[in-house]
Amino acid sequence: MSSTGEQPNDWAAPISRSWQLDDLGHYATNLAPQIREQESMALHTTFKIGGPADLFYEPETEDDLIQILKACRHRKIPVTLIGRGSNLVVSDRGIRGMVVALGDKFADVTVYRPNELQRSSWHDILGAENIRGDVYYLYIEAGMPIAELSHDCGQKGLAGLSFACGIPGTVGGAVFMNAGAYGASIEDVVIATRFLDEELNIRTCIGQEHKFGYRYSIFREKNYFIVGTLLLMQHWQRDLIQKEIDDYTNRREKTQPLDEPSGGSVFKRPVGHYTGKLITEAGLKGYGIGGAVVSEKHAGFIVNRHHAKAMDVVNLVHYIQQTIKKRNGVELETELRFVGDYLPEELALVGH
Fold it and tell me: Does residue 96 belong to any structural domain of this protein?
């Protein structure tokens, strides 16, 4: 089944002020050669959807990150921070202001044994009583792909991240939304997270201060920028970890549309229900609006099959929500994030 949604004539016209490189003035002169203008966000999201960002920058160091954020603050340029764009639906109109992408350039890993952690700045932050002696500690910058880290840890015999072997986002994004799969989540291994607060000061969030919940952390409610996170990893038999990773990988390949662009799981799991089952029983597998289609392989996914626009996804998500609410009395909450130059009434369609 399919339906073609009509787009208004001005669907791609910006509705907010656009920004240019000159608007930064002298505050980021040394960074200017690396800042791109009118960068297509379809190149930076796994959905392959989205209009242009006014300005786009990928920092390589914490100092770079702080400088660009301070420059934007001085010039009152709005900032959108992204990782690998794995759960984003960027507006067809794009994103106004500066997009700061923490990706491969911001992905260093530092491995500590307990005695090394004791001699580092982490000793003062965590306290000696909270540093265990039989584990490995890994400090991971926010742009590191979580799946790549999972495989690397498996090869080194470090257990705790096997569940993340197929998650397409970054470590920062995983902490932001408490990403998880197969009964495990990132909160199981996170000890502390370094972030920039609203005043752009480096701070550290420890243990329960993360307020982890289902697909939730404190970073979803605060205007903070995750810089990196400290993980606690157990040493285990390498072959057993690899078997676990192989099993999870095979399950994903059999049940998820990995060969088509998507934003991952569309909806959070409602209490007492399985989203994919509800959508399947409603007969919505294969249903599409424009180029966005409910995957036949897994009904919890929407795929970009025919050059979909963001509003195709918005309208399809809305249709699914309305159908399931009418049929089952269940309100589906999106796991996807809708960012960019949307009208309020467009976001209201998906409950944002």
Answer: yes
pLDDT (tens, 9 = 90+) of the chain, 352 residues, equals 433 333 333 445 677 889 999 999 999 999 999 999 999 999 999 999 999 999 999 999 999 999 999 999 999 999 999 999 999 999 999 999 999 999 999 999 999 999 999 999 999 999 888 888 889 999 999 999 999 999 999 999 999 999 999 999 999 999 999 999 999 999 999 999 999 999 999 999 999 999 999 999 999 988 899 999 999 999 999 999 999 999 999 999 999 999 999 999 999 999 999 999 999 999 999 999 999 999 999 999 999 999 999 999 999 999 999 999 999 999 999 999 999 999 999 999 999 8
What is this structure's pTM? 0.90
Instruction: Write the CATH number for 27.
Output: 3.30.43.10
Q: Which one is catalytic: 150, 262, 265, 295?
A: 265
Q: Please give the angle made by the CA atoms of 147, 153 and 154, to the nearest 5 degrees.
A: 90
Q: Are 70 and 247 in contact (CB under 8 A)?
A: no
Same-domain pairing of 233 and 114: yes
| Active-site annotation holds for 269 | no
Within 10 A of 239 (CB to CB), how many other CB atoms are there? 10
- Enclosing domain of residue 93: 21-101
Q: Is 265 a catalytic residue?
A: yes
What gap in Å lies between CA 173 and CA 191, rounded to an integer?
16
Name the catalytic one among 93, 215, 305, 337: 215
150 catalytic? Reply is no
